[in-house]
Amino acid sequence: MSTLSNKRIIVGISGGIAAYKSAEIVRRLQDAGAEVRVVMTSSAEEFIRPLTLQALSGHPVHADLLDPEAEAGMGHIELARWADLLLIAPATADFIASMVHGRANSLLNAIILATPAIVAVAPAMNQGMWSHPATTDNMAMLAKRQVRIFGPDSGVQACGDVGPGRMQQPEQIVEQVAGCFAGQQLSGKKLVITAGPTREAIDPVRYISNHSSGKMGYALAQAAAEAGAQVTLVSGPVNLEAPERCNLVRVISAADMLSATMDACTDADILIAAAAVADYRPVTVATQKIKKHAEAINLELEKNPDIVSAASTAYSDLFVVGFAAETQDIESYARDKLQRKNLDAIIANDVSRSDVGFNSDNNEAWWITATASKVFSIRSKTQLARDIVDAIADQLKA
Ligand code: PMT
Question: Distance, CA 398 to ligand 1 centroid (Å)?
């Protein structure tokens, strides 16, 4: 999987002859799995038609700073927040100068000022303009502001001159964009997470379930996506919003969760099983609501399939992390599950307490592998999820 998978990239196009190469950049970024939006300056439209870029990116091209319709939908602030990386290709001498001065006179300039994302430029200009001390100073200022600078190349230019200033080739630019994300811990990894409870139907209106809220699993999905992984979240019924940038697969029963998880693990690198799967299900499910005539009824239950064990047996290359929900002898029961379920690591938590475990915003956990263990003292599930992601990344490196 590419490090660009799931990444949100704005391709900003300023008005230079190299703008025709921007279409190829958009296509290559998309092929590598990135989600792309295009923002053009008005002079860029003299060199390449917005329609071409709209067709390639599959989204309207953004151009006007003062467009009430755009501001009502994805305006400049939303675009600035949306992006992981803003690539200006080509970046003309004039556009670079406007960046140095912090201008906000075009949509693209305003986004650059407002964005917390990585900003990169692929300069493209005549060799004389590139060598001018004003451009040299401008480039030094951009570098000082941590703007990534791709190129330029040297060679024969559109005007017939020979020298530095030609925009790099699209494949080189896309490679460097990918490089900007290479340092992320789980970059390039496919990760599957199970979360929440399952429901095992008794009749059309009743079911067996448990107190899992899904908070732990959803926090893990968010943390893994932030760490650059491509995440599939297989979730039982919960009242939580879908985490951003995750492929959410909703399921109800353990049988559904088993088949969705096995499917998702086919080409995955890591499985984290945070779901509280119902251990048993009714042998028969009544087709009509069971009437309350009897003083007592017997429910015959059968064991559900063990999802995490099935995945660790079927996919030998998968790095499998289980959870252990315990109420006593936490570490020793967890170690037993680590072995029995053929896991690479297990996260044990105490589900007898009301301040951690089920349905709480906080948790305390033990990270246990065959050779090591450490305690994560009580903290928010969001923070614990980030710590677990760090622990997994460290383990994969070891
Ligand atoms: O959802 P929250 O409210 O945030 O609460 C979080 C949590 C307490 C549910 C979570 O931290 C947790 O402990 N999840 C695992 C719950 C559980 O079912 O533990 P277990 O010890 O019974 O199971 C051990 C492992 O086997 C788990 O990884 C579980 O997902 C997996 N399992 C269990 C049974 C089964 N049929 N299939 C499984 O895959």
Answer: 26
